[in-house]
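Here's a chain:
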Amino acid sequence: MTRMRRLVIVPMLNKENNGTLQIMPQESLFASEPSTCSPYFIKNFDVQIGGISLSNKNIEFKYENFLHELNGKYATNSNMEEITSGQISMDDYNSNYGYICVDLSRRYDFEEKTALSIQIRGSIESPKDLDFLCYITYTREFSIDLNTGQKLP
């Protein structure tokens, strides 16, 4: 993909390990997935774009990493003060709102228009197998003629 901005991963229990019904959590009337995540623990987490790692070292993704990925973005005063808006608290994060968010825009400008692969690596330390819903946001550009309202080539 080109112009990737953010990766959001929603960990969920694998349907084979989800009791006798063996249905995916998002299909169950009794589960809150994908509005929340299933409990998980991942070590040695790393995301690579075009074979280049986005972080200096593999991490154990926790609430601190979640905040680090969102700091300066979607909060009042760049999430640098006590007051925040729209931020998931540590209690919420630990109560199955543990989305894994990665800022994919941290790369060189000349790579913006180059299609690059994305790789996600890590060790699942949870006692149950997990599936991951992965969402990638990206940017598209186009020009509009303001007189006619038509898209320009």
Remarks:
- The longest helix spans residues 63-70.
- The beta strands are 4-13, 42-49, 52-53, 100-103, 118-124, 130-138, 143-144, 151-152.
- The radius of gyration is 18 Å.
